[in-house]
Amino acid sequence: MSAPTNHRLRANFELEVLVLTLVDAKLQDEQTAEELLQETVANVEHYQARKVVVDFRQVRYVSSVAFRPLLCLRRHLQEVNGRMVLCNLSSVAGDVFRTTKLVSADGSFTAPFEIASDLSAAIALLSAPAGRP
Fold first, then answer.
1. Is there a contact between 46 and 76 (Cβ–Cβ < 8 Å)?
2. How are beta strands 114-116 and 26-27 bridged, if at all?
């Protein structure tokens, strides 16, 4: 089976972690969200990944429409005892995730998504046992 065709992300492996780098600067419409959902799940299934980093390095703006593909990916990974970490969130994108309580920057509450400052930190987090930095 050939690798999935990607338009909304780039996929590669680093230290047994599937890194999905989002390529759009803005995640704000239903079509983008639907394509992102299809591509993320297709890549995770194709590579049988259980450790996934979603890299936001190129994303400058996120609307709530972007939550659906990420929450679906999270649910998919939970079904296979997998884990995902978001990284490189811009201040604007990070504020959206923090305001909606989808991430906890200080760990003061349990949030759906784990975050890391950059790709190296995200990979290190996934390499550590769950719940440990």
1. no
2. unpaired
| Low pLDDT (below 50) residues in the chain | none
Alpha helices in the chain (DSSP H): 30-47, 67-79, 91-99, 119-127
What type of residue is 101? K
Q: What are the structural domains of the chain?
A: 9-127 (3.30.750.24)
* HSE-up (13 A, CA, CB side) for residue 104: 7
**Dihedral, 29, 32, 36, 38 alpha carbons, nearest 10:** 110
78: Cα within 13 Å, side-chain hemisphere? 8
3-state secondary structure at position 116 = strand
Tokens of 122: 């995200």
CA-CA distance, 131 to 133, in Å (whole number)? 7
Specify the pLDDT at position 42. 95
- Whole-model pTM? 0.91
Q: Which two tokens stand for residue 121?
A: 């930190």
